[in-house]
Design a protein that fits this description.
2 copies of one chain form a homodimer. The first copy, chain A, is mainly alpha-helical and 192 residues long. Chain A is built from 10 helices and no strands. In chain A, α5 packs antiparallel against α6 (83-97) and α9 (146-166) crosses α10 (174-189).
Chain lengths: 192, 192
């Protein structure tokens, strides 16, 4: 049992992620190798590569989880709910996932902003998430271009809210900032 | 006078762009060199590099023009116009610039979709355009996060409309598709 637990490394992803951020901050992103990260986490390189394709993916491992939760949330919204509300409910669901991660998210954001290749990958992940939400809305029967426009709007609220959440002077929860973002969209679109 | 015209290559950008697209279609993007493009346009490599930093930039040379026109348009909208209308008017202004370019835009889109590095550069240009519009709205006195959200929405309408315009069965003008996009945003945000 102990062997099994050690072999399968419970919460290996979390340990690798934490070790990677610590090393990125201590030594710099370029100077940190996958071997360094695995060693710090008390795991092997092989374990690292079971969880992440490369060093850069440590920053984006959460994207797949977000996408899965987003699609699950859209699917759970009943059919008679408006497109706007379906998007709002689903984006709030993924904002909930970030609770208690503000400190790590701040470190991550500082590193992403400092490296053009990470910013590019971030834009790609955002476009992928938007495309997934568009498809989910089409599945609900939302026609184009409303599906694309509503998905783009929802993911914009998420990303713009994310940056505000990191530095929010009142330390409000991410989900509250997202809710406020949707209210702003409503206000702007109604001509305020 | 003739010498001067020849030296400064009137419409060199347009000739280089047309030559580049022709060669990309004939030989493939990878197989075409800057020297090939310059030769086909009847110009020198030096002239090419006066207009474009590298081969890839031929696809994105228009981005600076779009951004300039977008900011000029925002600046021209009177102060009492709502944020939504200011964004709509400005995005329609840049949609106008694409008139008569549908065939070239289709070729461009096919090439961009076929190359991951071009798609990445496209996402970066989109993010840059969004940031420029956000700043212009802040200059108008629009507070955050409304400025970021409205800018993101406007640029989404532009890009989603662009793809629809390329394949529009009715061959409607880009600007009409953009106008319709803003109507869809209004409808979605009001809970339809």
């Amino acid at each position: 049992m102990m062997l099994c637990m050690s072999r399968w490394s419970p919460n290996a992803r979390g340990r690798l992620e934490r070790a990677a951020y610590d090393l990125f901050v201590e030594r710099g992103y370029e100077e940190t190798t996958v071997a360094d990260i695995a060693r710090r986490a008390g795991l092997t390189e092989r374990t690292f590569f079971r969880h992440y394709a490369d060093k850069r993916e440590v920053f984006f491992g959460g994207a797949a989880v977000l996408q899965e939760e987003l699609l699950r949330a859209v699917d759970a919204v009943s059919a008679n709910v408006s497109t706007f509300e379906a998007v709002r409910i689903s984006v709030e669901a993924i904002a909930h996932l970030m609770r208690d991660r503000r400190v790590l998210a701040r470190e991550r954001q500082r590193l992403v902003l400092a490296h053009a290749d990470l910013q590019e990958r971030e834009l790609i992940k955002r476009a992928t998430l938007t495309a997934a939400l568009t498809d989910a809305l089409k599945q609900r029967g939302v026609p184009e271009p409303a599906a694309s426009l509503a998905a783009d709007m929802g993911i914009a609220v998420f990303y713009i809210g994310f940056v505000r959440w990191l530095d929010d002077p009142a330390e409000r929860e991410f989900v509250d900032i997202v809710r406020e973002g949707f209210d702003h969209i409503k206000a702007v679109a109604s001509g305020c």
